[in-house]
Amino acid sequence: LTKIEMLGKISKGIHAHSLRKLFPSHLGMRGLVTNIPADEPDLFEQTHQFYADACKQLNGSVSEGILNILKRSKFTVRFKIPLKKDNGEVVLFDAFRSQHSYHRLPCKGGIRFSPDITESSLEALSALMSYKSAVHDVPFGGAKGGVCFDKSKFTQKELSRITRRYLIELAKKGFLGPSKDVCGIDIGTGQQEMAWMKDTYSTVIENTDMYSSAVVTGKPLSQGGIEGSEEAGGLGAYQVLRWFLNNREFCRQNYFQPSLKGKTCILQGFDPLSIWAGIFLSEKGCKVIGIVGENSSVYEPKGLDMVELEKYYTKTGTFKNYPFAELSLDSYKDHESVLYKKCDILISSNSERNIHYDNAGQIQARIVLEGANGAITHKAQKILEDKNIIVLPDILSNSGQLIVSYFEWLKNIEHVRLGRLTKRWEKKTKEHIVHSLGKNEVEFEGPSERDIVYSGLEEVIGVSCKEVFQTAKAEKVNYRTAALINAIRKIAQTYNDTGVMYQKVLNSLW
Predict the structure, then answer these.
(1) Is the pLDDT higher at 316 or at 165?
(2) Quick one: which of 406, 408, 467, 397 has its CA closest to 138?
């Protein structure tokens, strides 16, 4: 396939088979692409700062008691995982799971394998999962977990033992189950780890649970996964951008020409979310002109070929000397300069706190989309606002994976592939309508599972973007505060409808 042919097939759902080999899972191992100032608050404090900003705008419409409930995680468990390595050595790892809110069940959140995780960072991420789920009306509470180690230093067999032991410990402590707490992929984990988890739960922990496949999401298709999950994060980010840049009121207010066509984009980070977002944007005529990676960067004002660039990066491990670009830099001082080039859109993915007070003032993008949880610090947000740069926050923009994981969870609960019962009926109905008009030569196909996932994701994100846009307009606040206001109000409504005291009794019983 040529690039145009390949990109043209993206919306038809064929791309995953042809592009999966080009975007290997090792790109899920993410690292910092910028030096964070030592005096920037950590992710936990940063999340509370943004939460406090939203609470100030509520003007007493939500009770102080409920606001206090949402400030901290309900439960966080910390424990040790022993591992006997292949050489006989025994090592111990710190492991965690944080559950932020039970306003909806099950709790939902990814599992990280990273040497950088801390208890406080996981509490912050679990809170963001609660807010994110509420913004998009996904009926989950927030959670997050992980094991503190560098997976690159362990064999496949050792990783399997670590993963399975972690899941068993969660189950022993009551932090696991399709109706209690559902795990998913995150930094350092992927389909393989999810397959091990699902196998451990269904064969060792709950071998009589007919819904056992729903205990984790992000699984391979053979284990109950869902079509479209691999590109879900990037597709969600793309659909948020498409909604805003096709909204005439937003474009009129911010002096944009409606449409993605002709816009320019820079990616901060080279992970699956940014790669897929770049591909979807390219399909709609938006040029990806620069990428800032961990150890190098590349810039081409005429637009970069994402497929060819990923092939080169996979082969060499760097963007340096990429032949089809105006600039390809590898020193830290030089390669971060691509971040400060003029563009319409900057997608900041890869890791937390990428944009901070030390680099926010040099950014020249008109829109910054937060493609990673907590990618923009509180101080940086203020600097960007003072420069009239629009920020589309993480709890709105970095939600594609969450939404599609909800579809996968539903698929596992219902034990049927999406569209399986209606695909042929829809095909015959469309053909009957067309044939009745005398167009007998026209044939149709019913929607595939990927088609349904794409359509559902577009619907959920479209509704959420509209709600956030309307709240920002009514309350005269930025989009992050508007999204948090919506999330807090929805969670508060759930607590009020069931009764906060009753909820506390349930929590204590559990």
Answers:
(1) 165
(2) 406
What pLDDT is stored for residue 29 in this prediction?
38
Q: Do the beta carbons of residue 46 and residue 374 sit within 8 Å?
A: yes
**Whether 391 contacts 370, CB under 8 Å:** yes
Question: If you write DSSP's letter for every residue of 240-305 in order, what string do you get?
Answer: HHHHHHT-HHHHHHHT--SSSTT-EEEEES-SHHHHHHHHHHHHTT-EEEEEE-SS-EEE-TT---
| pLDDT tier, 186 (very low <50, low <70, confident <90, very high otherwise) | very high
Compute CA distances 482 → 134, 342, 489, whole Å: 13, 27, 11
Rounded to an integer, the average pLDDT of 318-328 is 83
Q: Which of 189, 102, 177, 113 is nearest to 143 (CA)?
A: 102
- Strands (E) across 85-236 are located at 90-99, 107-113, 141-147, 181-185
- Length, in residues, of the chain: 510
CA distance 505 to 501: 6
Distance between CA atoms of 274 and 5, rounded to whole angstroms? 21
Q: Which tokens sit at 41?
A: 């608050």
Tell me how far apart the alpha carbons of residues 75 and 291 are, in angstroms, rounded to a whole number.
39
Query: In this predicted model, what pLDDT tens digit does every residue of 374-387 receive, in sequence order?
Result: 999 999 999 999 99
Q: What is the pLDDT of residue 453?
A: 94
User: In the structure, what pLDDT confidence band is assigned to residue 509 with cuts at 50, 70 and 90?
Assistant: very low
The answer, yes or no, to whether residue 33 has pLDDT greater than 70, is no
Strand 343-348's sheet: what is its strand order? Answer: 327-329, 297-299, 287-292, 264-268, 343-348, 365-370, 390-392
Which of 24-38, 158-172, 266-280, 372-386 has the weakest average pLDDT?
A: 24-38
Neighbours of 449 (CB within 10 A): 19
Q: What is the CA radius of gyration of the chain?
A: 23
Residue with tokens 């042919």: 5
List the beta bridge partners of residue 80.
94
Instruction: Please give the positions annotated as active site.
Output: 144
pTM above 0.70, yes or no: yes
Contact 11, 327 (CB under 8 A): no
